[in-house]
Amino acid sequence: MQYIHQTTYGHAGAFHTAKPLFAMQNNHLFEMKNGRPDVKAVYAIRDNKIYSTPLHPNGESPHALYEIKGNHIHTTAFHPNHNPNQHAFEIKSSM
Question: What sign has the CA pseudo-torsion 59, 61, 81, 71?
Fold first, then answer.
């Protein structure tokens, strides 16, 4: 299992020890609740692109909202807060 952390905390590029927001396993992302991954996958991963599932509060997305590039997750043009010059999350193997 891998964990998804915010890459900015306080200011851009800052190192931080914040708890992970998501857990990644079997091509799905699960929200962290009380330090554990939730049982419902709110995102699905296909070809390094991340789509919201029907279980997401905003419903299923026809277009990828995020893209995985190496150990970083970037927003796509379909994400409401898209910023092409900054990654949004970092993938780590441990919490």
Answer: positive
